[in-house]
Amino acid sequence: MMSMPVERIKNYEHMGLGLFIHWGLYSQMEQGEWTEFIHDIDQRKYEELINTFTAKDFNAESIVKKAKNMGAKYIVLTTKHHEGFFLYDTKGLSDFDVMHSPAKRDLIKEYVDACHKYDISPFFYMASYDWHNPLYKDDFNKYLKYLQRSVELLCKNYGKIGGLWFDGNWNKKDADWHLDELYGTIRKYQPEAIIINNTGLKNMGKVINPEIDAVTYERGIPDTINHGEKGQKYVAGEMSITLNKHWGIAANDIDYKSPGEVIETICHGKKVGANVLVNIGLTGTGEIPIISQEYMKMIGLWMKFYGQAIYSAKPTQIKAAEGLRDFVLSDGKSDYLFIYDIKVTGNSNVVLGGEGTNPRSFVGIDKKVKKITWLDNNEQLKFLQNNDMLTVNATGFRYGTDLIVRVAKVDFEN
């Protein structure tokens, strides 16, 4: 039997939706976060980007407010990516940090302070794979002390944090990363922090240490989530989605996902029991690109109507009729029907497909239904219940509206 999640993991699952932010020196080049490595740029030349890193347009409060309006309950910001540049004051640990750039501001402090002000949980992304520090190749044990010290600074100097999100152990998959020491440092100063370590594309969902609280699937779309082995600690799951093909800003990548794909990915994450991180890359000066802001607004509109199901509900064994993508979540009191392919209601002159009846059936609902209501407009739906089969008339969207995946709340008799 699967263990019950500890409180911090339960709280993390209830956050449901997060915002991932990639920002670093690479953002000034606007060609992705791996540009130094993939484009084989001379390291000394690349690292001169520190001299033009001004962060002049970085407004943490504005970014956090936009994340909150999107419906995100937490944000994961890159404190150091593989390029090795720190967005915070490393207190002498490294001269390759923001305090040695023209910005001369501890950007992580600004970020955390804004998160605390607006009741958003701040998470720190930390790259363990490092292209800057020669110790990574030359003296790995010394490098691990450097990594541990950089994490200790994050845990000690910024108040309560939501968690740490590590990325890069996959580069030295057979090495001893001294994870007990690293995670022990986190538990010492931030005992309630969620610990996540991105296991890489080949090991999605793998638990690499008992202190791991959530497993990642990167851009993978899993059908099931590994919540841990029987008798061991329950772990959460998390998927990520990029709006185009890159994590960091890439001005020439215009292959953006449709809003429908983004919304359906968020829904799929909850269907399988995973949180979803929606990623954006800031500009070189620290702004959210206009196109990313518009996506965040669209997600926020959807979450305004249906967010309660994303935050509070969990997967069920209830099945939709064969061939349909519909599914059901439950918060223990109410069920939530996630219904796909709803058409817009027109009339005899403008036929948009949502004018007639649209029966959708579900098997496995064994409690007596009292009422079923669309969350977006409070319309009560007609339904028939026969034993554990429920059939509902999923009416079309009102003309002028199409929210991609529609959610109805099922209330039961006492």
TrEMBL record:
InterPro entries, per database record: FUC_metazoa-typ (IPR016286), GH (IPR017853), Glyco_hydro_29 (IPR000933), Glyco_hydro_29_N (IPR057739)
Citing just one GO molecular function, the answer is: alpha-L-fucosidase activity
UniProt cross-references to Gene3D superfamilies, sorted A to Z: Glycosidases
Write the record's keywords in alphabetical order, separated by commas. Answer: Glycosidase, Hydrolase, Signal
**Source species, please?**
Companilactobacillus bobalius DSM 19674
Name listed for the protein in its UniProt record: alpha-L-fucosidase
- Looking at the record, the residues that make up the Glycoside hydrolase family 29 N-terminal domain are 11-308
Please provide, in alphabetical order, the Gene Ontology terms of the cellular component aspect for this entry. Answer: lysosome
Please indicate if the UniProt record lists Iron as a keyword. Answer: no
Q: Which family does it belong to?
A: Belongs to the glycosyl hydrolase 29 family.
Q: Which GO terms describe its biological process?
A: fucose metabolic process; glycoside catabolic process
Q: Does the keyword section mention Hydrolase?
A: yes
State its Enzyme Commission number(s): 3.2.1.51
Q: What does this protein do?
A: Alpha-L-fucosidase is responsible for hydrolyzing the alpha-1,6-linked fucose joined to the reducing-end N-acetylglucosamine of the carbohydrate moieties of glycoproteins.
